[in-house]
Please model this.
Amino acid sequence: MNKPALLYIASYLFTILLSGCSSENTKTPVDYVNPYMGNISHLLVPTYPTVHLPNSMLRVYPERANYTSELIKGLPIAVTSHRGSSVFNLNPFQGNESDACSEVYYSYDQEKITPYRYTVFLDKNKINVDYAPSHRSAIYTIQFEENRKEANFILLNVGNGKLTFNEEGHIEGYQIIDNSQTKIYLYLETEQKPHSTGFLSGTSVYYGASSINGENKSAVLKYNKETQTINIRYGISFISTEQARKNLEREINSYDVSAIARIGRNEWNDALGKIQVSGGSENDKTVFYTSLYRCYERPVNLSEDGKYYSAFDGKIHEDGGRSFYTDDWIWDTYRATHPLRILIDKERETDIINSYLLMAQQMGTNWMPTFPEVTGDSRRMNSNHAVATVIDAWRKGVRGFDLEKAYEAARKGIEEKTLIPWSAAPSGWLDEFYKEHGYIPALKPGEKETVADVSPWEKRQPVAVTLGTAYDEWCLSQIAAELGKKEDAEYFLARSYNYRNLFNPETRFFHPKDKDGKFIEGVDYRYSGGLGARDYYDENNGYIYRWDVQHNIGDLVSLIGGNEVFTAALDSMFDTPLGMSKWQFYSFLPDHTGNVGMFSMANEPSLHIPYLYNYAGQPWKTQKRIRVLLDQWFRNDLMGVPGDEDGGGMSAFVVFSMMGFYPVTPGSPTYNIGSPVFSDVKIDLGGGNVFEIVADGASHDNKYVQSATLNGEELSGPWFDHSRITAGGVLSLKMGPKANKKWGIGNPPPSVGPMQK
Model:
């Protein structure tokens, strides 16, 4: 045995001795990930058990109707930004050509999914499947268990595209995604040489043909019955089939699934291991690391050998040594996913913001994207919250992008693009009305829509858009201030108070107002607004949007009536019943699930609400409420996520809240303190800096903060500034079973406050 091998064995044994247990019994962060958590939805979209490496182009999951389905549609090759469906898939079978079919649903059993490996037994067909991904390539081992008289086949199906056998007998091709100009390219090869190859069209196999195109067509690889094991590896690309081949050759040089899985496992442990937790239960750790894993599903890195395809102009670009990212659902992720990435992956966050600026330029408008996907900016949802990611990153020390360019793209995206939800049209009448009057007007009951760009499904969402734009304009004011643009800063700061224009002083809710400046009559904040409340709000009712002033909670406290009235209003939201059967309520508010009274844990505009007691002298209620919500709605089981998990948008709330703090106002370099689940958390900030949260006595019962220090200095309020942890530090919390109602009451988290006269 050579010397390096001996040194490796000695080091390995020493590590085991230090740990006090065998390596088989030592769980690493990725071992706690349960991709099945939340796979059965409470009402709408479930989570998907995604197999991928962190932020990678290649993602797969078994395509099926839902988790309870006993059938999977082929074996996945790749997933784009569309949830629930794959591009390309593999169909292995034994039999005759007459049995071949482009779309096959398999009965399955013994399925096991980890972030880095997928194994399943196709029980009716008696086929074992083993799979592992890299970043742009992957590997399959298909093993036929029965040695039957018929031949063995592998079919590669394309939904809408072309497949070709090249001169070497390997498969090349592409699929068009979502009827767009975007194509995903594939290069695939097998270790075992097929007996013959051809193409399936309809129910007939044509051997000897070199290519086929169209919809739901398949390449056919036929093997002798003696070939029981077939090893397959492939690469994907958004540039070309040749680039797909290069991606494969660079990342995978064998047919060893276990070897690729080990590499993936290590990459996941590197990513998840940036946060180390101690204490809590095994289920707590599973919920935590599963939530953290979901924060790495989006956005995805499209760079390939220094180049990338951009759907924002349909061209291939040089990346200049900086990765290009897309598929970022910003309406969801600006709230907590981006702030989390600033802490644990600052370099990637820098690349993502630079990608935004490239998208704005490539679209030809220089409008900041709002919902960038693989196929371009879909402009989904409302508002323009990429501006929040920009100022939040800058205020927290991220400097690797041009703030002036970001300001212009954000400003143009807000002022030149329409504020109409789900629209990329230029600004029009509604936008001019907003600029003049400071709110988006609602239609009166029975009034017909006359603005052409308003979607008949998504509607105007006037309250949601007004409040969201007020926050966006506050973010603009902060960027302008950083750039020394005093006049712009003052202008946008004044406009950031536009939420006041829809505040109804009689009801103390944000209330839709018509173009004549009159509040719409007969509004019930629980039910009004039609499907998804979109006539007035968006996906959530008036009780949720009552608190949608992230940048100025201090002023909201004053508007509602001071600390006591404000906290009583929060209490009332959690205590107000649905007032009707669940099926009735969810028939028009299907996103408003995860209910605690009128509070909805299942939708992103709710995430900051439990922390608002901190602003009004009752931080102990935030501590209580956070723990209760985590216990009620986030669990290590198939229904353990209460609503849509949109690109980490909801999971980042869980990660932050379990650690014990949360960024209520992206753009303000501050964090609210909640109630940590773990007794010790270590966050690797990079550069050798570690931020540690020590929660002395933390347990299921001990959820209340008794006292707190940060870096040895007493904290008198339930918040702290990012600047105090950039070089590392220790937040020490003394926890107890009963609330200390005096701690933190006199020093609320900062906000803009009431308008200065």
About this structure: The longest helix spans residues 462-482. The radius of gyration is 27 Å. The first strand starts at residue 51 and ends at 52. Confidence is low (pLDDT under 50) at residues 1-24.
